[in-house]
Amino acid sequence: MTATAERNPSNYQDFTVIRPGRHLGAEIRGIDLSEPLDDRTFARMAMAFFDNEVIVFRNQKITPEQQIAFTRRFGVLEQHVRKEHRLDGYPEILIVSNVLNEQGKAIGVEDAGRFWHSDLSYKREPSLLSALYALEVPVKNGIVLGHTDFASTTAAYDTLSGEMKQRLQDLKNVHSYRYYRARNIQAQKEEQARGQRTVHEHVLTPEQIASVPDSEAPIARTHPVTGRKGLFINEAHTSHIPGLPKAEGDALLAELCAHVIKPEFRYAHQWQAGDLLMWDNAAAQHKANFDYELPLRRLMHRTTVRGPAVA
Ligand code: SIN
Question: What is the pTM of this model?
């Protein structure tokens, strides 16, 4: 974890929470995820998670079965639309990686998290939380690359003016996987034209695309667990704000997205192999950083828990 200790450590009896981020981000010490957690410890840990929006358990040694069993305690696990990048035998695990197989094909999603987003926000039942387990991290000259940035959408909402909160009250936004794919493919082409890294993109079938139709959600969304309001709008998936003229909608989208990622709402996670990092998709957005390339390898396993339907 980076950043100064601005929040105090707390003792939850069975484990300790260290809070380096100002609004979000905490390290939980004293829990071994390869062992089943008793219900009381699990409930306290879940409380610490929703209080802190992003948490890390360092130095974990877990199998895919153990990651699935642990995250399943929070709810139903999703099977990602990109089935070509699910872990063999474990469809609940999405591989996030820049590693290529012997045929030169990407074994996982190479550019997950290119834009600020929350996972699966384009679903009618958007993800509640994700857990990313780091098996390999890229290290150059002793420095770990490929950190992940997070921003608290609840802290961002809290600081909006009363007038803006009023304006957002009845507004919705459309989250679209198709829109995201088009943006992502355009960004990949631009990178290639600049002579930057090549993403080995797998073309999705029409059935895959059809399985993730657009979905409408409130911009100011009430968190399904904590009841806090947060900004549920992001640059990756929000295609437009229905009911507003395009120029006005685009301007509002840009204003809100820029607001969420202001430095005061941020936490940067510096990875270590063995980290199990969990983030609350209803309270935080995130973005990956691609400052590494093969032969530096990054290999992670993600599980994603389904949340309740948005109203
Ligand atoms: C993601 O967006 O799920 C991946 C984030 C990362 O690889 O840092």
Answer: 0.93
Q: How many CB atoms lie within 10 A of CB 248?
A: 11
> Could you read off the pLDDT of 223-260 as tens digits, one per residue?
999 999 999 999 999 999 999 999 999 999 999 999 99
Distance of CA 265 to the CA centre of its chain: 15
> How many Cβ atoms from other residues are within 10 Å of residue 145's Cβ?
18
123 lines ligand 1 (CB under 6 A): no
pLDDT digits (tens, 9 = 90+) for 198-209: 787 777 888 988
Report the length, in residues, of the chain: 311
Does the beta carbon of 269 sit less than 6 angstroms from any atom of ligand 1? no
Task: Write down the catalytic residue from 221, 223, 298, 302.
Answer: 302
- Is the Cβ atom of 85 under 6 angstroms away from ligand 1? no
Element (H, E) at 41: helix 39-52
Residue 109 DSSP one-character state: B
Helices (H), 169-283: 177-193, 206-210, 246-260
In angstroms, rounded to a whole number, what is the distance separating the alpha carbons of residues 241 and 233?
10
Element (H, E) at 301: strand 299-306
Which of the 8 DSSP states describes residue 201? P
Give the Å distances, CA to CA, from 146 to 11, 24, 123, 269, 287: 31, 19, 27, 9, 10
